[in-house]
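Chapter summary example.
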Amino acid sequence: MLELKSLTKTYKTGDKALVDVSLTVPEGQVVGLIGPSGAGKSTLIRCINRLVEPTDGDVLLSGSPITGQDQRKLRAMRRRIGMIFQEYALVERLTVMENVLSGRLGYVGFWTSFTRRYSADDISRAYGLLDRVGLMQHADKRADALSGGQRQRVGIARALAQEPELLLVDEPTASLDPKTSRQIMRLLIEICAERNLPAIVNIHDVPLARQFMQRIVGLRAGEVVFDGAPDALNETVLTEIYGAEDWNAMRRNAEDDDSAEAETAALMAGIN
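The structure predicted for these 272 residues follows.
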């Protein structure tokens, strides 16, 4: 379980990125984090694992504090938190398997990581994860030979190689087409259910969040302005989160994406 208690981030300029954010995410629950650009979504995720230092408040994972820990203890805590990035953060020249095994770096010694001589158990675990994300046949390919969706699957497998107690996911579909985005979201939801993993997903696509998330938290100017079920995201709530102009533009873009995908499907059906 993840607990955030009055989490606040104030920059030296005096700008507040987060204001008194309090949340509890139980085991197995996947929370979608939505809001306009600059609302504090990425800052919130990065404050949880202290890639960004919060100014005030507490973060606890399974009752253990993350805030206030020294660097040695923080490294140990970070092993328990899997991070999945928007831009994949893979080592392009390494193979898919080597990238997945890099998720074990927090558990092995320096020479093992330097020589990449992982244990048989780690290798077996990595193969199992590649099979789970549908990339077994690509294990020996370089990461830069993969599509965007395949790279994101490698990122998911690498995060799971840590055997985490929490997943933090930062805009996992921002660089993907609509079909691949749904596949990636479905995979994340299934994996969290299988492993009883709590997760926070920073997601800019509201229709996708409505379709897949179990719970939605809406941020605006660093404050939580909505916390509830996806079916409660009506136009009034979305206008409160995004503002009338931003929400109308987002809705038009979503409708355009759906229309373009439907036209492509119809075209391909005609070709076939």
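To summarize the output: The beta strands are 2-10, 16-25, 30-34, 56-61, 64-65, 81-84, 166-170, 199-202, 215-220, 223-228.
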